[in-house]
Amino acid sequence: MDAPVEVRVVARDEVRQLLSMERCIELMADALAALSGGEAENPLRTVMRLSRLGAALGMMPAALDAPATIGLKVISVVPSNRGSGYESHQGFVLLFEPKHGAPIALVDAGEITAIRTAAVSGLATRLLAREDADDLAILGSGTQARTHLEAMLVVRPGIRRIRAWSPNVERLRAFAAEGSQAHGLPVEAAASARDAVDGATIVCTVTASPTPVLEGKWLTPGVHVNAVGASQPNARELDAEAVRRSRLFVDRRESALHECGDLLAAMEAGIVDEGHIVGELGDLLIGGVVGRREASEITLFESLGLAVEDLAAAHEVWRLAAERGLGTSIRLQ
Fold it and tell me: Of 8, 89, 27, 39, nearest to 319 (Cα)?
């Protein structure tokens, strides 16, 4: 007789209900420390380019020792969805229990990605930004701008000024109004990217731009930068000077050397080499490298997004959904 196999399906609004930013930051710290410490597996993602559609399909497998889980994220990336009512990133995280390899959960990947990406930037900011960093700039006005604003306020609650910029003026104004209302702090809509980052001590780039939106000459000494939007070799948010001036940290060295357009362009130009990477966030957490060394230093975190992050976040959502009776349980056999 076949053993029963039940899969719990967790929808987007339930993910948002179950996974707080504060908790997700701690989950990301555990997952990245495990990865750098050899207690997780995270091969490079596979991306199928759908050139006729201007889209892509990404497949990201991973395995974690704790919590014990294996799985993958499958996600479509359709940049033209922006402003259409559909998210640009849609898909699911599929979890398996490792003893028998049975599937246990199917979790909406859009909200997992939105929260865990910002949570990793929050972790990087907690580790690398100056303790007195209180001037935030966000370049971008989409989902990641919203979640990054939340994450930055979690790890640096003393932030007193927030500026944002986006090439889409209508979306920028909407983001500024919504952010101001949600957090009780005015979010200023800047006229240019340069105006937004002038004097900022934390900068988050969360655009879909294929060409740089942040120039190194604009960066104030002591700033910390989270570069999030350029997760493909042919995409860039930062110019080579921004990379050169910064003490660079990544989520995964292997991923950065294959996928990080900001770094790869600077390497191709001969401005830096792979030794410019100081280390992974996990290395910082387990004491393998030193983070910020002085107040005037510019630190940069290049975020590519890893499947271990998705698995850690989705496992927590699955656990809480089962505990609270949320989601829909489907019996497969």
Answer: 8
DSSP per-residue string spanning 53-89: TTEEEEEEEEEETTTTEEEEEEEEE-GGGTTTTS-SE
Predicted confidence (pLDDT) per residue in 116-132, tens digit: 999 999 999 999 999 99
Q: What is the mean pLDDT of the chain?
A: 95
Chain segment 169-194, per-residue pLDDT in tens: 999 999 999 999 999 999 999 999 99
Would you state the pLDDT for residue 53? 84
CB 250, CB 260: distance < 8 Å: yes
Q: Which CATH number applies to 6-113+308-331: 3.30.1780.10, 1.20.1050.10, 3.90.550.10, 3.40.720.10?
A: 3.30.1780.10
| 309 φ, ψ (degrees, to nearest 5) | -65, -45
Choices 1.20.58.100, 3.90.550.10, 3.40.50.720, 3.90.79.10: CATH for 123-306: 3.40.50.720
How many angstroms separate the CA atoms of 305 and 184, rounded? 30
Chain position carrying tokens 């209900």: 17
Q: What does the DSSP assignment read for 246-258?
A: SEEEES-HHHHHH
Q: What distance lies between CA 119 and its chain's CA centroid?
A: 7
d(CA 186, CA 205): 19
Question: Hey, how many other C-beta atoms are within 10 angstroms of the C-beta on 201?
Answer: 20
Q: Give residue 101's region: left, alpha or beta (phi > 0; psi -120 to 50).
A: left
- CA dist 45 to 42, 54, 68, 254, 332, Å? 8, 19, 21, 11, 28
**pTM, whole model, 2 decimals?**
0.95
| The residue to which tokens 């999030």 are assigned | 228
Per-residue pLDDT reduced to its tens digit, 15-42: 999 999 999 999 999 999 999 999 999 9
